[in-house]
Amino acid sequence: MILIRRAQYLSRLLNKATASNYCRCYSDTHRKSSITEKIKQGPGLKDFIIESSEPVFTDRPHIPYLLENDKIKTKRKVFFDVYGCQMNLNDTDIVWSILKKEGFEKTTVEEEADIFLVMTCAIREGAETKIWHRLDHLRGYKRRAKDRSVKIGILGCMAERLKEKLIEKEKAVDVVAGPDSYRDLPRLLALTENGQTAVNVLLSLDETYADVVPVRLNEGSVSAFISIMRGCDNMCTYCIVPFTRGRERSRPVSSIVDEVRHLAEQGVKEVTLLGQNVNSYRDVSQATEKFDTHMAKGFKTVYKAKKGGMRFADLLDKVSAVDPEMRIRFTAAHPKDFPEEVLQIVSERPNICKLLHLPAQSGSSAVLQRMRRGYTREAYLQLVEDVKKTIPGVGLSTDMICGFCGETEEEFQETLSLMEIVDYNIAFLFPYSMREKTTAYRRYQDDVPDQIKKERHHRMLEIYRRKCQILNEAEIGNTHLVLVEGTAKKSGNILGRNELYLRVVFEQAEILAEDGGKRRVKPGDYVAVKIVGAKSATLYGVPLYHTSLCDFYRENQWGVRQAVN
Ligand code: 5AD
Ligand code: SF4
Question: Which residues does the UniProt record annotate as the domain TRAM (predicted)?
Answer without folding.
Answer: 473-545
